[in-house]
Write a structure and sequence with these properties.
Chain A: Belongs to the ABC transporter superfamily. Macrolide exporter (TC 3.A.1.122) family. Chain A: InterPro entries: AAA+_ATPase, ABC_transporter-like_ATP-bd, ABC_transporter-like_CS, ABC_transpr_LolD-like, MacB-like_ATP-bd, P-loop_NTPase. The complex is a heterodimer of chains A (232) and B (811). Chain A is of the alpha/beta class. Helix content of chain A is 31%, strand content 29%. Chain A has one domain: Rossmann fold (3-Layer(aba) Sandwich). In chain B, strands 3-4-9-6-8-7 form a six-stranded mixed barrel. Chain B has a six-stranded mixed beta barrel with strand order 14-15-20-17-19-18. In chain B, a hairpin with a 6-residue loop joins strand 18 and strand 19. Chain B is elongated, with a radius of gyration of 34 Å. The chains are: A alpha/beta (232), B alpha+beta (811). The interface between A and B is medium-sized, with 32 and 22 residues.
């Protein structure tokens, strides 16, 4: 068994609204080995996005342990979490979240600007990432000039440009038609084949089956794990 | 009309629904409009309000001019001839300033007097409130002594006694009959306590010499349809006739000026400068409120779209928003009026005497009308751009929610940025103006006046000729007083003098030894008449020869001490001591230079010195009649150890010991004279600084509001950046950089504007500071950038607290 990249033990996240205490996730235990492609599934409100946010260091657990690459990360300070996010994690969101005032190339370059790196190296990585998603020819365009599928490809390029250990994708095909959705999923498969660890939230069972394993959440708890056949 | 009322009602409801927004807008407007109204009340009082005399546009002021003197007072006999021989005036009257002592009932007191010819009040079209004007026989030498009281003095000294007319009062030891009391609002070239006839002195030597110009100004009323040019030509023809008869009138010409212009010409630049400054503040205010309205327009886009979808035309939407902004302007104007009333009180308390001459600064009907116009105009000004933007509706977007997938800068944000740039630019111009004037002020403190003004107490005494009839009596008084004051513990030295730097002095003519006595050879110098110890008391340095001693008396040859400027000009490379000058004050004609002292800044710490040279007479050496006249009114200067005013009581006691009935007046330090000399400039500089500070605060608030709104709008974008690993410093720099770009653009624009506009404020600048003073420009720019940085840093810091999860959920 490969060394786990992600190790979650008794992870809990409680939200307090007025006097109501809501357990978004409770007692989550699982690990993700380096290079695995994992899908998190479950109905709305089951805690998928909360779990992904904690794994992506956008949120902190109320209790429990989170080891990323064998390092405890749940107690890190804000700037430390930002550094880890920047250097080790790539994000793909359902709504792309590109910045409208920046060109495609600038959007892809954005996370690289937050780490010490020469301009030449940044340009090289941007070019490679855009090439990888087939968007090299649209580098100077603004996001508003692209279709939804193209925008999500750019978002994917932005996520991988920093060569992260972990790629988190939250409903990456949620805003796309089936053709563009398929294309994005194909790109994720390619990335996985290239060694990227992927954690994806999706409602689509067909896309879920493309992962190696699906973790099912219900009411904030892991209720089932399904191991899929290796994707060809 | 009913639609407008509906808009008005709706506007009131909308404003009431957003109390914070309304409060900030009204408060900002109140500051801008209030400051503007307060200064306009000064503009109105000084520049616009007609003088309080009948048909004031026909009143002119007559002075005289010579090739070497642009403006001189009028020789009394010339006035008499101008009045008799002109054909263009209804009449003219002569006046000058004087002082008298009042004794008898109550404390002895030195009074400020004006001497009027009998014709002054008819020329002005003013009549006394009680009693009458002077009679012709009272306005001539040895005529009955008649006095008119001013309203303030009548109230203060006589508690408004309604039966005062006809009663005698004691002035300079003699009884004078009160013949009238002036109305309360009467002002004429300043204020005074009493008015006495000028003709009583008409037989005095300096009134009988056409070469003497004893401070007389003439006011004249032009005949209907006569222009100043025609009247000038008329008086110059009279003057030409006089010049043929009287050698002293050669080269002397009449000079006429509109009376209002004469009163305000020295004030105009400073007041218009302040008015310009508050207009800048008002523009910044308008830009700030426009900014607020633009931000608010964003939140009302859906309302506007619904209205447009329901058929409201663009003009209808614009009108509704303009009604809202006008209502804001009017409420801000009403609050501004309260600020103005407070500001006017402050101005009234702090204004220099020069402004007081023109009457009260008050919020009267013209000022109220102006405030209404400014309030409405400002409302329309700041409402127009937001109204136009808000009325541009894309109906296709109507009722849809905004697309958050990509964050883009809207056109309204560019307008808001532009408004901030303009605000910063205007604030910088004001800051540079205030900085230059303050720096000039600071530099003035470094100017060496040529003497040491610290630790010197001064007070004026005027000995009445009725009790001090001879030069010997006058001399005895001063000798005894100086002796007693010198014995006061802590007094270092004491001296009496007629004329002090910054406090006024005569000017006297002189010629070089051997030069023919013709006007072309005449030179002028400030003439001080001093007692022994003067140079030591003022610490004016002796450069050569000696100063005066008690041995310089009428029996010894007339000696002069000259200043270094006179020595350098007329005795270059020579030792002036022992050389002679022809002087014009004594009947001795020739005086020997006994010493050379440093030049003192007589007319002010900087600026043109009207007369370049200075000469000092030992007053005891002058012929007895001249000595008695000069020494009857002198200033006592006392150098002390420590706070000079602390010695005032003891010096007053010394005066009382010599003559219990002798009042003293103008008790102040020599430093106060210097402070008074810069009072108008200090007043304008202080106000300019207040407005610049206000502009800076308003611009900073505008920048802060824009950046805070920008951060709020960019929450999602900033959340994305933070999710991608942006550190707090990256977010701070992103926001601060955006703000600094606006500040830099505004600063560049402001610096260019300041370079162009500060050349208009020469009256506030000293010789030591140029309008392009680099230190000032750099200093205020750094200050502006620092404040801008602070205004930007606060929202930037807040941006770092954005929770990326919350931001991402906004999608």
């Amino acid at each position: 068994m490969a060394e786990p990249l992600i190790c979650l033990k008794a992870l809990t996240r409680v939200f307090h609204t007025d006097e109501v205490e809501t357990h978004a996730i409770a007692d989550i235990h699982f690990g993700v080995p380096r290079g695995e492609y994992v899908c998190i599934a479950g109905p709305s409100g089951s805690g998928k996005t909360t779990l992904l946010s904690i794994i992506g260091l956008l949120d902190t657990p109320t209790s429990g342990t989170y080891l990323l690459d064998n390092q405890p990360v749940s107690g890190l300070s804000g700037p430390e979490r930002a550094r880890v996010r920047n250097e080790r994690i790539g994000f793909v969101f359902q709504s792309f979240n590109l910045i409208g005032d920046l060109t495609v190339a600038e959007n892809v370059e954005l996370p690289l600007t937050y780490r010490p790196m020469s301009s030449a190296e940044r340009q090289r990585r941007v070019a490679a990432a855009l090439e990888r998603v087939g968007m090299a020819h649209r580098g100077r365009h603004l996001p508003s000039q692209l279709s939804g599928g193209q925008q999500q490809r750019v978002a994917l390029a932005r996520a991988v440009a920093g060569e992260p250990l972990l790629l988190l994708a939250d409903e990456p095909t949620g805003n796309l038609d089936s053709k563009n959705g398929d294309a994005v999923m194909a790109l994720l498969r390619d990335l996985h084949r290239a060694g990227t660890t992927i954690l994806m939230v999706t409602h689509n069972p067909e896309y879920a089956r493309q992962a190696q394993r699906t973790i099912h959440l219900f009411d904030g708890r892991v209720v089932e794990e399904t191991v899929h056949e290796r994707v060809a | 009309m009913s639609a407008l009322l509906r808009d008005l009602r709706f506007a009131a409801r909308v404003l009431a629904k957003s109390p914070s927004y309304t409060f900030v807008a009204v408060f900002t407007l109140a500051l801008g409009i209030g400051a503007n109204t307060a200064i306009f009340s000064t503009v109105n009082a000084v520049l616009l309000r007609p003088l309080p005399y009948a048909q004031p546009e026909r009143l002119v002021v007559l002075t005289e001019t010579q090739p070497k003197f642009e403006e001189m007072s009028v020789a009394y006999l010339n006035y008499v001839d101008y009045r008799q021989q002109n054909s263009t005036f209804v009449d003219m009257g002569a006046f000058n300033d004087a002082s008298v002592n009042i004794t008898g009932k109550g404390e002895p007191e030195r009074l400020k007097a004006q001497q009027f010819s009998q014709s002054v009040l008819p020329v002005l079209g003013v009549e006394p409130l009680l009693g009458r004007n002077f009679l012709a026989e009272e306005d001539r030498p040895r005529g009955p002594k008649a006095v008119i009281l001013t309203h303030g003095f009548w109230q203060r000294r006589f508690a408004g006694d309604p039966d005062i007319v006809g009663k005698p009062i004691t002035l300079d030891g003699a009884p004078w009959d009160v013949v009238g009391v002036m109305p309360p609002d009467f002002r004429f070239f300043g204020t005074s306590d009493v008015i006495i006839p000028i003709g009583l002195r008409a037989d005095e030597p300096n009134y009988q010499s056409r070469g003497s110009h004893p401070g007389i100004t003439v006011v004249g009323r032009l005949k209907p349809d006569v222009t100043i040019e025609q009247a000038t030509a008329d008086l110059r023809a009279v003057g030409d006739g006089l010049a043929k008869i009287h050698e002293q009138v050669q080269d002397t010409r009449a000079r006429l000026q509109d009376m209002h212009e004469d009163l305000v010409e020295d004030l105009r630049e400073g007041i218009l400068l302040l008015y310009g400054a508050v207009m800048f503040v008002l523009l910044i205010t308008a830009a700030n409120v426009a900014n607020l309205m633009l931000a608010r327009a964003m939140t009302r886009q859906k309302e506007m779209r619904i209205r447009a979808a329901l058929g409201a035309g663009r003009w209808r939407l614009v009108r509704q928003l303009l009604v809202e902004s006008s209502l804001l302007g009017l409420v801000g104007g009403a609050m501004g009026l309260l600020v103005a009333l407070w500001g006017v009180d402050l101005l009234a308390a702090a204004r220099p005497q020069a402004i007081e001459v023109l009457g009260p600064i008050e919020v009267d009907a013209p000022v109220l009308a102006y405030t209404l116009a400014v309030a409405l105009g400002t409302g329309l000004l700041f409402g127009l751009v937001p109204a136009i933007y808000a009325s541009r509706q894309d109906l296709a977007q109507a009722l849809k929610e905004a697309d958050h997938r990509a964050t883009a800068v809207g056109g309204h944000l560019r307008v808001r940025n532009l408004l901030v740039v303009v605000e910063v630019a205007l604030a910088l111009v004001l800051l540079v103006g205030a900085g230059l004037s303050l720096r000039g002020f600071a530099k003035l403190a470094d100017v060496d006046p040529g003497f040491s003004p610290g630790d010197v107490l001064t007070m004026e005494l005027s000995l009445p000729t009725t009790r001090y009839k001879t030069a010997a009596e006058v001399r005895r008084f001063w000798t005894e007083l100086e002796r007693r004051v010198a014995e006061i513990p802590g007094v270092v030295s004491v001296s009496a003098s007629s004329g002090l730097p910054f406090a006024g002095a005569s000017e006297s003519s002189f010629l070089m030894a051997g030069e023919p006595r013709v006007i072309a050879n005449t030179k002028m110098a400030v003439a001080y008449f001093v007692d022994a110890g003067h140079f030591e008391t003022l610490k004016i340095p002796l450069h050569a020869g000696r100063t005066f001693t008690a041995h310089d008396t009428e029996e010894t040859p007339l000696g002069l001490v000259i200043d270094q400027a006179l020595a350098d000009k007329f005795f270059p490379g020579q030792n002036p001591v022992g050389q002679q000058l022809q002087e014009g004050m004594s009947d001795k004609g020739i005086a020997e230079i006994v010493g050379v002292v440093g030049h003192v800044a007589h007319y002010g710490l900087d600026g043109p010195q009207r007369t370049q040279y200075q000469m000092y007479y030992a007053y005891r050496q002058l012929p007895a009649p001249i000595q008695a006249r000069i020494a009857s009114g002198m200033t006592l200067s006392v150098r002390t150890q420590g706070e000079p005013l602390g010695y005032a009581t003891q010096v007053r006691a010394a005066v009382a010991a010599v003559d219990p009935e002798q009042p003293v007046f103008a008790v102040q330090t020599l430093e106060q004279y210097i402070a008074d000399s810069v009072a108008p400039r200090r007043f304008t500089s202080a106000l300019l600084s207040v407005f610049a500070a206000l502009a800076l605060v308003l611009a900073a608030v505008g920048l802060y509001a824009t950046m805070a709104h920008s951060v709020a709008q960019r929450t999602h974008e900033l959340g994305v950046r933070m999710a991608l690993g942006a550190q707090p410093r990256h977010v701070v720099w992103l926001v601060v950089r955006q703000g600094l770009v606006l500040v830099a653009a505004g600063a560049a624009l402001g610096l260019a504007g300041a370079l162009a506009l500060t050349r208009l404020m020469t009256s506030l600048l000293t010789q030591q500071v140029s309008p392009a003073d680099p230190a000032t420009y750099v200093g205020v720019t750094l200050l502006l950038v620092a404040i801008g940085l602070l205004a930007t840093y606060i929202p930037a810091q807040r941006a770092t607290r954005i929770d990326p999860m919350v931001a991402l959920r906004q999608e």
